Amino acid sequence: MKKQHIAIIGAGIGGIGAAVRLAVAGHSVAVFEANSYPGGKLSNLQVGDYRFDAGPSLFTMPQYVEELFALAGENPKDFGFDYHRLDTVCKYFWEDGQSISAYADLHKYGQEVEEKLGFPAQALKDYLAWARFRYETTAPIFLEHSLHRLSTYFRWKTFKGVLAMPWLGLHRSLDQENKKRLKQHPKMVQLFNRYATYNGSSPYKTPGIMSLIPHLEQGFGAFMPKGGMKEISHSLVRLAEHLGVKFHYGQKVEEILVQNKAVKGIRIGQEELAFDQVVCNMDVFFAYDRLLPKQPRPKRILEQPKSSSALIFYWGMDQSFPELDVHNIFFSDNYPEEFRQLFEEKSLYEDPTVYIHISSKMEQTDAPLGHENWFVMINAPQLNGQDWEQLIAQSKKRILEKLERILGRPIQAHIVEEELLSPALIQEKTQSHLGSLYGTSSNNSMAAFFRHPNFSRQLSGLYFVGGSVHPGGGIPLALLSAKVATEDLIKNLK
């Protein structure tokens, strides 16, 4: 196989993963990133004496990161990648004063829901066993291989998956599936409905097959990287550089150069750089809009409904809150209305579900002694001409009132530092179309097939990775997009 000179556009986690894989395969790789730092959404910020993970805050399936080090024959710890397993995956709070801890230990988790919510421990275990079955049945089809190559459908695992279709919940919503399997228990249904937000979708629209998502937390575990979430991307950059990959920061690619229906390089400013192959880690909408303006657009794919966005407040707190854990959810009293507002009205509900991540519970240097760093997030709609200045002010007031009401103690008085990330800023900083966190939403049973493939159907030598293409958003799936795309690239060279 002839050594290729390959350009990667974007140093998000998908682009970094692709860089490692291609370097291990013996190719010359250069990564061009418009920002001054790697990681895309997987970055961090410093606000006064407080450090925050800017974007993703939950780490699951570390095996996909470790796989990259194994491919290179390296020890992850030598490059700064290590992690803690969380004893409590998440702590949940409701308006009526009830709260539970979702323990990593399934026996303890079962005892917790039985004693506090009156939900049978065995029913929880049965539900999670079902989630595992769905994951193991579908992951080899929908996650680990291209849905856009005919060869995928001639695998034995695909055949097994097809046989299991009647039991996968493709024609019921996640909410309908959860009501059926969780004995109509309102709090347990709401708890497991919230996993629809892991791909920016509504539990009342996304298919029941999404009930496999809890297995990623309870089956594989939830973790906290030592040094914060940024160390996932930073450690992989160190590995890539060790393998000879060159990273060029502050280098905004303006165009993918094309000749005779094949890529021939990229343009940065007025400079044209020749490359044999190009891997694009940019949001696929903007890739066509800005980098491939003269090429036919896959209109049907690009016009698919977008996932939700987020409104995030980064609060430096001058006190500690022992009643909170690393991950915390404060539920809305009207979940259906919250999602109706989000996806139909394109607005924010007056009683939002609030997520709080406090990394300083594990990484004490993320906040001064006795203080905490609060990453406070609510689901938000995609950009649609809203008055965000008004929505942000309203939301902050409502979030504070909700937290003070449920926790029974003042919150606002203890905020000493604050930063904000809105859907508009998400689009600006990460080039995510309309501020969408996960590209296309999964609000219909065929959504997986409407994601852009990891290769171009029109242009030879062009591949796509990241959360806006197959198999989807989030750290594990973005890393899998790199695996699917690079395996396809290497196969096409033989």
CATH first level of the largest domain: which class?
A: Alpha Beta
DSSP strand (E) fraction? Answer: 15-25%
Which consecutive residue ranges, at least 5 long each, have pLDDT under 50?
A: none
Shape: globular
Category by helix and strand content: alpha/beta
What is the number of E strands? 20
Could you say what the CATH topology of the largest domain is called?
Polyamine Oxidase, Chain A, domain 2
Q: How would you state the average pLDDT, rounded?
A: 92
What composes the largest sheet?
Answer: 7 strands, mixed
Count up the helices: 15
Physical arrangement of strands within the biggest beta sheet: 8-7-16-17-18-15-19
Key structural traits:
494 residues, alpha/beta, FAD/NAD(P)-binding domain, 7-stranded mixed β-sheet, 20% strand, oxidoreductase activity, carotenoid biosynthesis, oxidoreductase, FAD/NAD-bd_sf, hydcarot_desat_CrtD
Structure, explained:
It is a single chain. This protein has 3 domains: 5-36 and 249-305 and 445-493, FAD/NAD(P)-binding domain (3-Layer(bba) Sandwich); 41-104 and 221-229 and 308-437, Protoporphyrinogen oxidase, mitochondrial, domain 2 (Polyamine Oxidase, Chain A, domain 2), CATH 3.90.660; 106-219, no CATH class. It is 34% helix and 20% strand. It is built from 15 helices and 20 strands. It has helices spanning 13-24, 63-71, 106-117, 121-142, 156-163, 174-181, 186-193, 213-218, 230-242, 284-291, 299-302, 335-345, 388-407, 423-430, 475-493, and strands spanning 5-9, 28-33, 44-47, 50-53, 59-60, 83-85, 88-93, 99-103, 222-225, 246-249, 255-259, 262-268, 271-274, 277-280, 309-317, 327-330, 354-357, 372-380, 415-421, 462-464. Strands 8-7-16-17-18-15-19 form a 7-stranded mixed β-sheet. The longest helix is centred in the first third of the chain and has 22 residues, at 121-142. 50% of the residues are buried. It comes from Saprospira grandis DSM 2844.
